[in-house]
Amino acid sequence: MLVQIRKWTVTEGNADKIIERFKKKPDQGPTLIEQREGFIGRELLVKNVRRGEEEVLMIVRWESEEAWKAWEKSPEHIAGHKNKIKEHGGKPPQPEYVIAMEHGSYTVVE
User: Fold this and answer.
1) pTM for this predicted structure
2) Average pLDDT over residues 25-47
């Protein structure tokens, strides 16, 4: 199993903006990523405010690294990113409330 962790540090009061972008909307059915073969699940977590900052973690679980790579290379995933870049004048969007973003992929060993 492959686990991806993304951590956003945002200014106080803006964690909901990250959560809204990624949370499941019950009235819209499964998202594209949820329909991908090998996708297991996703969780969003929020850490309490400290020093005017909030943290949001997203944990995504895949059956394998190959399943994740297939998603990354899929036309649906690529198109979604291209649309975001196009909407923001040819640059990857980085909202001003995002202080930092970290990510990593981990293989589950036990």
Assistant:
1) 0.82
2) 90
